[in-house]
């Protein structure tokens, strides 16, 4: 599909992914409110939510979830936003995703498997409560 998009459209999409990575919540949510698909996906299958979670931006994650972002989506490697948040040890992000119904056992590796593999005991305890 990327071959079908013009340079201006691709540049805009890259900018949106950068907003998620950088935690620029207000600007990103403004674009979502204006019609940007909340589950926009890049060439690796990463959604805005996955990128915001991986880069530990709980406010951005919460805002995307409140606009209908799919907490269960996986990227092309089977990873979820919850696994990314657990890996980054972002308690606030993990809590937001769990409150939105994210399954700690979904994905490959799942958030639980990620926490076990990296010996993130605090994250594992949090995921097992959720």
Automatic annotation (TrEMBL):
Protein origin, superkingdom: Bacteria
Keywords (A to Z) from UniProt: ANK repeat, Repeat
Coiled-coil positions: none
Keyword Repeat assigned: yes
InterPro entries: Ankyrin_rpt, Ankyrin_rpt-contain_sf
Native source organism of the sequence: Micromonospora pisi
Residue stretches of each ANK repeat: 44-76, 77-109
Pfam families, A to Z: Ank_2 (PF12796)
Protein name per its UniProtKB record: Uncharacterized protein
């Amino acid at each position: 599909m990327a071959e079908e998009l013009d340079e201006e459209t691709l540049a805009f999409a890259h900018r949106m992914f950068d907003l998620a990575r950088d935690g620029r919540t207000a600007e990103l949510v403004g674009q979502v409110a204006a019609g940007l698909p909340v589950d926009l996906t890049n060439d690796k299958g990463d959604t805005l939510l996955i990128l915001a979670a991986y880069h530990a931006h709980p406010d951005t994650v919460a805002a995307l979830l409140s606009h209908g972002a799919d907490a269960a989506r996986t990227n092309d490697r089977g990873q979820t936003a919850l696994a990314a948040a657990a890996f980054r040890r972002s308690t606030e992000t993990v809590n937001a995703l769990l409150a939105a119904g994210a399954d700690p056992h979904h994905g490959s590796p799942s958030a639980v498997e990620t926490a076990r593999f990296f010996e993130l005991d605090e994250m594992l305890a949090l995921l097992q409560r959720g």
